[in-house]
Amino acid sequence: MNVAAVLDGIDRFQRERSWAAIPFAVVKRYGESNTGNLAATIAYYGFFSLFPLLLVLSSIGGYVLHDRPDLQDQLLGSAVAQFPVVGPQIRQNVTSIQGSGMAVAVGLVLAIWAGLGGVRAAQGAMDTVWDVPRKQRPRFPRSTGIALLSLVVLAAFIVTAAAVTWLAGRTGGVAGATVGVVASLALNICFFALGYRVLTTANVTWRQVMPGAILAGVGWTALLALGGWLVSSRISSSTHVYGTFAVVIGLLGWIYLGAQIALVGAVTNVVLAHRLWPRSLRGDLTAADRVALRRSAEQEERVPPESVDVTFGDRS
């Protein structure tokens, strides 16, 4: 078999058909942007940020809903529901901050500060995916402000998810389950769309972020539906060997998988917004290849006077 001829045939096939060229371009751009490592970074910081953020949520809920323990429980339950199987273990280890007013205030500030790590990692990943030059990325004060705004959005998402869960429970039966799934899907899509707009310095529109938001929203909703079986099968086979460390492995793996889904949606937005297809599998570079490679190189501009100029062998 002539492997080169087969690859040339596949390349011609995908270049001539948008429905094949776009997914291939997303995969290629995913690799060019080093997105797998970006997802790992988000998972790392997200893992260490999770408990402080849940601590904040539990503490604020305890003060605001001090006379409604049932709503407090539902609010925290909506947050840990995003982590199938390991959610109950997380819930058992999260309690609200107690003590004097000053102790609570200091504890909440430190918890929020720790929680900013995961959000700022997501900021850096989104700017990288959108090829924002490093000299244009927000400095510490602005990036922290954006991260705090993102935490508010996250809190609003959790509160809304709790309301959806309550509504679905009140409806009951097949109708309640249907309302819950549809509302959860719509909520996830809105959450990803807002995140894609807020977390990047790039000037993007709602229209540009919606394709990836729909893709990520559907993917995350499906993952939650299948996640219980997926994670439980892994943890159940690992518990006898790793014990409680299996929960840590499951949680870290789950966050990494979620980060990958979010970044695939973001890469899809970039490919569609800048028409980065068709890409070449082998042979001559396409116009989309040149644009993508230029954007990757220009991202390395680090100081205002610096300007990166990209040329190719044919001086184009």
Entry keywords:
single chain; 316 residues; globular
Please provide a written account of the structure.
- 76% of the residues lie in helices and 0% in strands.
- With 316 residues, it is mainly α.
- It has one domain (24-298).
- Helix 8 crosses helix 9.
Order of helices and strands: HHHHHHHHHHH
Please count the helical segments: 11
Structural class: mainly alpha
Q: Helicity, in percent? A: over 70%
Low-confidence runs of at least 5 consecutive residues? none
The shape is globular
Radius of gyration: 22 Å
- Oligomeric category: single chain
CA distance, first residue to last residue: 35 Å
Strand content: under 5%
What is the number of beta strands? 0
How many domains comprise the coordinates? 1
- The overall pLDDT average reads 82
Tell me the major beta sheet: none
SSE layout:
Layout: H1 3-15, H2 18-32, H3 35-64, H4 69-80, H5 87-92, H6 101-129, H7 140-171, H8 173-198, H9 206-242, H10 245-273, H11 287-298
Helix pairs in contact: 2-10, 3-4, 3-6, 3-10, 4-7, 6-7, 7-8, 8-9, 9-10
Please summarize what this structure is.
This protein is mainly α.
